[in-house]
Structure formats: structure tokens, C-alpha cells
Design a protein that fits this description.
Chain lengths: 257, 293
């Protein structure tokens, strides 16, 4: 495995495995994810990359019959430790989903939702956070005149950026993105990619994607999953141009996938 | 040739479907017309706000209107929280398992039990055993049991229809399950829940047999929950069955029907008032656009 230095590690998995009842979805994955960078996870469908992503904020807890082995550390704390409250963890580790899922409320209410559930009441502060988050998600200019209209009336790309703004409003440390562009057109995809690059200055981003070009464009670090194993992991440039493993090369050149 | 027959069959199908719609609407219109035609001439302000005289042969029906309102309100106060709680528990907090199946089976069966059986149970249990006597309390508890399955069932369907993506989105922001239910799931399910409540109101307002056995039938104005009363349905039943006054029975029926009509209209208006629901409504309507030929 390649050695690289990209600042301090934010997240570390050590021999981490996930089972759904009998089925083993992840096989002893060991990985170190650097802070304030974009890490892309690629691989064919069913290879375990989404499972890995959903373990980091323990959304997998909601699946019946799920079981983990090994360890997953966030800033040195074991995520699956009994003392870790998954609700508190999810405030630190936010997630953007494959399909934009704004709540059926106004644009404003969507962004204010997170801070509100975490106890913020001041209208003035909420207003500030909403504006700042929307601006960070490069959406403010498009929606500032319709903050109180339903979010469901925005376009798909706008909805996805709204979901990112909604996430930024709770000030997470890690952003997990599960194929955030798979339901979007190329122009909206471009906007999201720009946004991801921009956000990487302040956040640790882990993005699952099926689009190799996208991984090349946005990520500094790249991991290739196959059948539940992390086959290759290193700097994106290196993995893309000069993969060490045969399977990675086959996948990148389109021999299977 | 075959194309022609397919088209003809389709035409027949359309004609048949149109007929069924016309028959349904026609029956409804006929009943409404009959009741209003027979009842409206006898309705006056004095009839609505006056007290009955001579067992209802003359005077008004004010105490029966109050009785109906009391019974409806009291049974909703009992049935709605319990029904919603059960529905939330069944859909949000439990994985689909055996117990859920059993509970669902019993609720479905409970919904099919004739109301007079509920009345009999209410008479034995609330009126006699618990000693509540013939009272609004006994009646409301009985009616609450009767509408519980409807409220649970419709609320359950409403909760299940809320996309899982909403729940995931909320949980991923660090919301607890309860916050997610309160702030996201419940508001999205509200139109469906309201439908169930309106259906429940309809059954309570329209119930006669179960009421007869549990609230008595006293014609004076009820002053509290332990008083007996005579709701409108019971009043019109007694007026008609005992041959007291058919025209008064018709007038009472007209008031009852108009009342239900007003409740439904208000409920619909309220539903449209909730801003979040307009879009789902619009989507629904958009999905039902007619496909020509």
C-alpha cells in the first residue's frame, strides 16, 4: 500500500468487517483517511463501499441483523464503542444521499432544521446560519428570494445543494457523500463537484462514486473496493495512472465493472 | 379487424365504468335530495336552538346537538392519542415481526365487529361493571374503542407512506428518532391522519345502537361528562321508530347531514392550509392526469 502524507489522519479503520446476518459485506478493511481532503471510494456495485460509508455515521445500525468486527476510529475514538452515542456521532459525521432528500418544508426550514433540533432557538442566529450555509453550498444567490417556498419546487441539482447546506448548518467535521450526483444532470454535477473541491478546505470529505472521471476530478485520495475488500488505496493520481494491483487496473480500464 | 374489436371492447368498458360512476353519484344525490327536501322545511333557528317539548313532537333539538358534540369530542380525546401512539409504535419503533402481524390482524377484525356488539360490551363494562352509568363517559369510551381500529389503520398507512429518505435525512443530521417522528414524519403524515380522524368522526356522529345502550337517551341538556344525553342519531331514531314525528326525524337528519358536510369541508380546508402538503397534493394531482385514448 502506498505511503502518502496529506496531513493528520481523521478516520482510521483497522481490520474492519461488516456482516449483514450471514453475508460479509466488508472484509477486514484497513484504511487511514486524511483530514481536509477528498477521499473517493470506487468499485463495482455491491463491493462494500456504501456499507463502509454508512458505518462511519452508524446509519447501518438501523439495518436488521448488522454486525461489525474490527475497529473504526474517528479522531482516535472507537466509533462502535458502547460509550459513543450514534446520535451525537451523526452530528459530527454528516451524510449526503444518492437521491436529494429535502424535507417537505420551505428552503429556510430545511436548513434551520439541524440547528433547531440541536437546541438553537434565536431567530437571528438561525437566520445567519441559514444564509451562511446556503452561501457555502453555492445556493444562496439562487434561492435568497424564495427562502419560504417549498424546497420540493427546486430543481434536482438545487435540492442536492440544499441537502449539503442543511448538513453544513450543523457544522459537521466529516461529510459522507453516497453517489451524490447519480441522479443529476451534467451541469448540476459540475456544480456539486466544484462545491466538493471548495468544501475540502474545511471538511474531511469521503465520496462514493461510480464515475471514474469524477473521482479523478475531485479527490486527492482514492480507494478501490472489490467484493468487500479494499484492494488498493493511495493518492488518486498514482492509483489512476499507475495502479499496483491487477484488479484495479482491470477495473480502471473497463475490463469489468 | 382485431384493432377494431379491441377499440370496441374499450368503448364498452368505458361506458360501463361511466355508468357505475353515475349510479354511485345518483344514489348519493337521491339520498341527499330526499333528506334535505323532507327536512329543510322544518328547520328554523328555533328548531336548532330550542328545547324539545312533548318528547320531541314540537320544540327544538338543541340538547341533542350538544349531546352529539360532547360524545364526538370525548371519544376523539380518548381515541386519537391512543390510536396515533399505537400507529407510531407499530410503524416507527418496531421491525415487522410476528407480534405486529398479530396486532394488525386483531385491529382489522375489530374494525369489522358490528357496533351494537361494542354497545353491548360498553353496557356491561363501562355502564354496569365500572359504574359509570348511562353517561357521556360510558358512550365516549365505547365509541372510542369502536373507532380505534380506523384511526390506527389510517395513521399506520399514512406513516408508512412517508418516504424513508426523510427519516434517513433527519437521522443523518443527528436527530433522534423521536425528533424525526415529531418534526418530519408526523407533519408529512398529517393529511392521512386527518382523513382517519374525519372517518372516525363520521362513525361517531352516525352511531346509534352503541350509543343507545351506553348513554341512555335523556332529553335534557347534558352538563357534564357523567350526564346521560341523547345525540341526534338516537333522537331521530326514536322519533321515527316510535312514531312520534316523522317530519321532525327528517329535520333532525337534515341537520345531521349538513353538520357532517360542514365538518368534512372544514377538514379539507384545514388540510390545504398546511403549506408542506400542497406539493404532495399537487404531485398526486399531476400523477392522475388523464391519459387520452
Amino acid at each position: 500500500m502506498n505511503k502518502f502524507t496529506l496531513g493528520p489522519k481523521k478516520l482510521e479503520a483497522v481490520d474492519f468487517s461488516v456482516y449483514y446476518s450471514e453475508f460479509q459485506a466488508l472484509r477486514q478493511v484497513s484504511i487511514e483517511i486524511p483530514a481536509r481532503n477528498v477521499t473517493a471510494l470506487i468499485g463495482p456495485s455491491g463491493c462494500g463501499k456504501s456499507t463502509f460509508l454508512r458505518s462511519i455515521n452508524r446509519m447501518n445500525d438501523l439495518v436488521a441483523g448488522v454486525r461489525t468486527e474490527g475497529e473504526l476510529f474517528l479522531d482516535g475514538t472507537e466509533i462502535f464503542d458502547e460509550k459513543v452515542d450514534p446520535v451525537a456521532l451523526r452530528k459530527r459525521v454528516g451524510m449526503v444521499f444518492q437521491k436529494p432528500n429535502p424535507f417537505p418544508m420551505s428552503v429556510y426550514e430545511n436548513v434551520a432544521y439541524g440547528p433547531r433540533i440541536h437546541g438553537l432557538k434565536s431567530r437571528r442566529r438561525l437566520g445567519e446560519i441559514v444564509e451562511r450555509s446556503l452561501a457555502q453550498a453555492a445556493l444562496w444567490d439562487e434561492v435568497k428570494d424564495r427562502l419560504h417556498q417549498s424546497a420540493l419546487r427546486l430543481s434536482g441539482g438545487q435540492q442536492q445543494r440544499l441537502c449539503i447546506a442543511r448538513l453544513l448548518a450543523v457544522e459537521p467535521e466529516i461529510l459522507l457523500m453516497d453517489e451524490p450526483c447519480s441522479a443529476l444532470d451534467p451541469i448540476s454535477t459540475g456544480k456539486i463537484e466544484e462545491l466538493v473541491l471548495d468544501l475540502a478546505h474545511d471538511y474531511t470529505i469521503i465520496i462514493v462514486t461510480h464515475n471514474m472521471q469524477q473521482a479523478a476530478r475531485v479527490s486527492q485520495v482514492l480507494g478501490f473496493f472489490l467484493l468487500g475488500r479494499l484492494v488498493e488505496y493511495g493518492l488518486t493520481e498514482q492509483v489512476m495512472t499507475n495502479p499496483i494491483q491487477r484488479e484495479t487496473e482491470d477495473y480502471l480500464t473497463g475490463r469489468f465493472g | 379487424m382485431s384493432l377494431f374489436t379491441v377499440r370496441t371492447t374499450q368503448k364498452f368498458a368505458f361506458v360501463f365504468l361511466r355508468m357505475t360512476a353515475i349510479v354511485t353519484l345518483g344514489c348519493l344525490a337521491l339520498i341527499l335530495f330526499y333528506i334535505l327536501h323532507a327536512g329543510l322545511p322544518h328547520i328554523s333557528l328555533e328548531f336548532i336552538l330550542g328545547f324539545p317539548k312533548d318528547m320531541g313532537r314540537s320544540g327544538g333539538i338543541f340538547p341533542t346537538i350538544v349531546g352529539t358534540i360532547w360524545l364526538t369530542a370525548a371519544s376523539l380525546v380518548v381515541a386519537v392519542p391512543i390510536g396515533l401512539g399505537a400507529a407510531i409504535f407499530l410503524t416507527e419503533y418496531t421491525r415487522r415481526g410476528r407480534l405486529i402481524g398479530v396486532i394488525r390482524y386483531f385491529t382489522a377484525n375489530l374494525a369489522g365487529v358490528p357496533s351494537v356488539v361494542f354497545g353491548l360490551f360498553g353496557l356491561a363494562f363501562f355502564v354496569i361493571h365500572l359504574g359509570f352509568g348511562w353517561s357521556i363517559l360510558s358512550g365516549a369510551l365505547t365509541l372510542a374503542l369502536m373507532i380505534l381500529p380506523i384511526i390506527i389503520r389510517t395513521a399506520e398507512e399514512a406513516f408508512s407512506a412517508v418516504p424513508n429518505a426523510y427519516r434517513e435525512g433527519s437521522l443523518a443530521l443527528g436527530a433522534t428518532r423521536w425528533q424525526t417522528i415529531q418534526k418530519v414524519v408526523f407533519p408529512s403524515a398529517l393529511p392521512g391522519i386527518m382523513t382517519g380522524i374525519v372517518l372516525g368522526i363520521g362513525r361517531v356522529v352516525g352511531e346509534t345502537a352503541a350509543v343507545f345502550l351506553t348513554v341512555g337517551g335523556a332529553l335534557h341538556l347534558p352538563a357534564g361528562i357523567m350526564d346521560p344525553c341523547r345525540p341526534m342519531t338516537l333522537h331521530l331514531y326514536l322519533l321515527a321508530a316510535e312514531g312520534i314525528s316523522l317530519s321532525r326525524a327528517n329535520a333532525t337528519a337534515a341537520v345531521l347531514v349538513l353538520g357532517i358536510f360542514i365538518i368534512n369541508t372544514v377538514a379539507n380546508l384545514l388540510l390545504n392550509y398546511f403549506p408542506g402538503n400542497k406539493d404532495t397534493e399537487r404531485q398526486k394531482r399531476g400523477g392522475k392526469e388523464r391519459i387520452k385514448s
